[in-house]
Amino acid sequence: MKAEKRGGGSGFSIGGHSEFKLIEKAKNGSKEAFEELMRNYMEVIYNYICSHVSATEAARDILQETMLSIWQCLKSFDGNSSLKTWCISITRRKIADHYRKVYKDDSMSLEDLQEILKAENDFECVYDKLAVENALTILDKTEREIVFLVFNAQLSYSEVSKIMNITVGTIKSRMSGIKAKLKKRLGKGE
């Protein structure tokens, strides 16, 4: 397995164990190894859920279902992506499952669409977090998800591509459009 540039993937050490060794131990049933692995991703996974679901109780339920699913499916993790990318893909499916159950037609409520992603000074034009949060409201659901995955989850475009099943070129193009929209909204456009 390869080490990732951002440190979220395999190859890093946790308490003296490489992620690869922890994955292998967890695959063999070690709950301690699984818990140690998940400590590194729990906050990103929970924030990702909260970026789609406004109700705290629902977010916690989805987190619990996601952790159970990750545990149950870990033996199928083949290392073709980072563990973080794989976990977020499972999380994304659990969020979709939630909305299928709740809304039957897989539509999101207006409140959930208004949920604002938090990005901290990742665009050069950001001078005020409140202005950024306001600007993010002009983005559609897919654009906000891309922003979250790139800036909050700190995933590469390639990883975002795998999670969202969109080509890397499309992710790059959308990010360019997102940055242009935000710059214009923040008064930094040409």
Short description:
This protein has 190 residues and is mostly helical.
What keywords describe this structure?
single chain, 190 residues, mainly alpha, two-stranded antiparallel sheet, 10 helices, 2 strands, 2% strand, disordered N terminus
Contiguous uncertain segments of 5+ residues: 1-16, 105-128
Report the structural category: mainly alpha
Largest sheet: 2 strands, antiparallel
Q: Mind telling me the C-alpha Rg?
A: 17 Å
Helix coverage percent: 55-70%
Mean pLDDT comes to 76
The secondary-structure element order is EEHHHHHHHHHH
Beta-strand content bin: under 5%
Biggest β-sheet: strands ordered side by side in the sheet: 1-2
In DSSP terms (H or I, runs of 4 or more residues), the helix count works out at: 10
Oligomer description: single chain
- Separation, N- and C-terminal Cα atoms: 44 Å
The counted number of beta strands is 2
The 3D shape can be described as globular
